[in-house]
Write a structure and sequence with these properties.
Blueprint lengths: L2 H60 L1
Length: 63
């Protein structure tokens, strides 16, 4: 086989491998973002509950 063709095939194989690795990394990043969004939602829920408790305490103290 011609050396140029062989080198090209190796280069293409390397590019495919790199592309596959990038796809896996991107999928992992999206999964991480999804987990972060869930955690932020939970945090917002807790903050809202704490705000209600604080308002109740402040209301009791005001009366």
């Amino acid at each position: 086989m011609d050396e140029r063709i062989e080198k090209t095939l190796i280069d293409v194989a390397d590019l495919v491998k790199t592309g596959q690795q990038a796809a896996v990394a991107q999928e992992s990043a999206w999964a991480g973002l999804e987990q972060l969004a869930i955690a932020l939602g939970v945090l917002a829920t807790h903050c809202a509950a704490l705000e209600k408790r604080l308002q109740a305490v402040e209301s009791k103290l005001a009366h």
